[in-house]
Specification:
The chain has seven helices and 14 strands. It is globular. The protein starts with a strand and ends with a helix. The protein is of the alpha+beta class. It is 30% helix and 34% strand. The strands form three sheets. Strands 8, 9, 10, 11, 12, 13 and 14 form a seven-stranded antiparallel beta sheet that branches. Strands 1-2-3-7-6 form a five-stranded antiparallel beta sheet, with helices on one face. A two-stranded antiparallel sheet has the order 4-5. Bound molecules: thymidine-5'-phosphate (TMP) and aspartic acid (ASP). Residues 92, 99-101, 129, 175-177, 197-199 line the site of thymidine-5'-phosphate.
């Protein structure tokens, strides 16, 4: 596969066209931002750890029968994915109260949420990713009603698979963000699942092992990402 011109560059990943119109390359960079890009930094190897974690989790979901855009890794930081039409909804699933949920509503950090809360945000930096409901999503033409139902069903299924998998690695999953796309008439999981898009807490200590380390200056971001990689992709450490 040949990497061609850049299609789109986001805050932490760059997407490239390839010589196959059905495939794209998603490159995980070492840059990171928070608070709608207001806080910015670079962290060496962060792109590598996130790419490896995302590849592992997307493969896990594929193995459990969830359709994803994942194809294969082209290099340590470059993922080959199916070209999909991205649905402009950020799907957030919450199992334990944290972050903006605690800021906006009378939940206490660490409070268990069962059944999980599922929230849709409109994926638009310009509008500050506001929370939307089904009526707003339909009125904006972001998705159809059957698609919203399918997204909800898939997000909850993905949540239960990830919670069980991570629990065995001594990682709690308070919340995370998913994006979906359309491909050949079906809804597929797109984007990434990584330390940038999930809250991961150490099960024993409650310590953050995700982008909150950067958002709230909690310590060494790369050490936190490396620790998640060590637990879920140990094979990449055995090589060195
Ligand atoms: P929040 O508590 O800040 O609303 O974040 C909820 C989850 O969504 C958390 O796991 C981080 C993830 N997230 C993203 O992936 N991208 C974003 O832009 C934001 C705000 C959160
Ligand atoms: N991804 C968003 C940003 O950069 C927000 C966040 O993750 O906190 O700005």
């Amino acid at each position: 596969m040949i990497k061609l011109s850049e299609l789109y560059s986001g805050k932490a990943k760059t997407v490239f066209k390839t010589d196959d119109p059905e495939k794209l390359i998603m490159e995980f960079r070492d840059s990171l931002t928070a608070f709608d890009g207001k806080k910015k930094s670079e962290a060496p190897k962060k792109g590598y750890y996130n790419a490896q974690i995302a590849a592992k989790l997307l493969t896990l979901l594929e193995d459990k029968g969830i359709k994803t855009h994942y194809d294969s890794m082209m290099s340590d930081t470059e993922m080959i994915v199916d070209a999909v039409e991205i649905i402009k909804i950020e799907v957030i699933v919450r199992n334990i109260a944290a972050g903006s949920l605690v800021k906006k509503y009378p939940f206490k950090t660490g409070q268990k949420i069962n059944p999980p809360i599922l929230v849709f945000d409109y994926k638009s930096d310009e509008h500050g990713d506001p929370m939307i409901n089904d009526d707003i999503a339909l009125a904006l033409g972001l998705a159809t009603r059957p698609e919203l139902l399918e997204i909800r069903k898939l997000a909850l299924l993905i949540n239960s698979i990830l919670v069980d998998y991570l629990d065995a690695k001594n990682i709690l999953l308070p919340d995370f963000k998913l994006e979906f796309g359309r491909r050949k008439g079906t809804i597929v999981l797109a984007d990434e699942i990584s330390c940038d898009t999930c809250r991961f807490w150490d099960k024993a200590t409650g310590e953050s092992l995700d982008k909150d380390v950067f958002r709230f200056d909690k310590g060494d971001l790369v050490a936190a990402y490396r620790e998640v990689a060590r637990r879920i992709v140990p094979e990449i450490f055995e090589l060195t």
